[in-house]
TrEMBL record:
It comes from Effusibacillus lacus. The keyword Coiled coil applies. This is GTPase HflX. The gene is hflX. Belongs to the TRAFAC class OBG-HflX-like GTPase superfamily. HflX GTPase family. GTPase that associates with the 50S ribosomal subunit and may have a role during protein synthesis or ribosome biogenesis.
Amino acid sequence: MYETTAKRERAVLVGLQTGRQPDFLWKLAFEELKGLVETAGAEVISDVVQARKYPEPSTYIGKGKLQELAAVVKELEANLAVFDSELSPAQVRNLEQALDCKVLDRTQIILDIFAGRARTKEGKLQVELAQLVYSLPRLTGRGIAMSRLGGGIGTRGPGETKLEVDRRRIRQRIADLRAELREVRQHRQTQRQQRKKREIPVLALVGYTNAGKSTLLHTMIERFGTGSHVADSGRNRLFDTLDPTTRRIELPGGKSIIVTDTVGFIQRLPHQLVDAFRATLEETAEADLLLHVVDASHPEYEIQMETVYQVLEDLDASRKSIITVLNKMDLVKEEWLPDDPCSEHTFRLSSKSGKGIAELAAWVASRLNRSAVRMQVFLPYSEGPFLSKLHAKCKVYSQEFEENGIRLDLDVIPEYRERIAPFKVN
């Protein structure tokens, strides 16, 4: 939580269960909202939940439930109501009038946490862009949530200047930020090309927020690092790592690799953040190997795994080779957990104690050291699906499109040699 001398805001959570997703999934997301609000620095004092088929267009929840919520807010002296889904500007305005307190939605809470966690220039640019894209259609009818005098959650970072800029200036600022982030993407692309020229494999850590990715990276650097170390906060909180961390380590056998720690995923990650952080998340799509870190001690860890795979699908990175790490096994009562069927291999370890790290490093070294053979091949256009696999898992030096097919110069990994043999060009 943020260190502040101000009194903590008292929040009431509001949820709407429409039946569009299984009951247990909805409960998980709502419990996650509580963690987000507490991470943002507020005290959750109560919650109000309604079950109905569709949200009320004007107030999200029904008239009767709104009266009940207003009574709870007044009785408990709450000054913040947080809704579990994104609200329209009209809904925020109507809710604030009815409740006489600040109203925020799930997206604003996540954006607020990101605003407080960004440390690097790139991270701050990405958060500002996401906040401005979210706020632009909400400039009219600003209420308590947009007041500069109110302070507290939802007003940190670039949000503090919303009243001082008009739509034209915000659009211009958004354009400037996107231009700066395009330069960031070009810079990252140049770095990736240089790494490919030096043939240094890249291992990207992905996973649900608070799964222990940063601790795992810290432990790997402590044991195998070749350069500067990275501090491990050891804090058990959501989105503890926002700015990506990249380090070079030397695995057993002398194999050097680049390890990148990325921002954690979460259910219903706001699309504004996915778009703004695309330059960072592209590190995942371009990695040679993905290490999916899972908090095995979480009661719903399998659902969290599904969320991660969905985000990877959105980033067009689901075809990458994936290794699953069931982390925090020191907190798991069961002696055995099933393997992840979506990955090449499943490891069980504790990144905090270091147990199992050596076995993981040895396996990764062996996996990345599998010799690839350079070949020239000619694929007919009917082999389009196979071509996609080659691009995903092999290093392609060049490709030329001809009348009857595609001529490729590439490194072929062992698992594809037999499959590609008929298309080899002497």
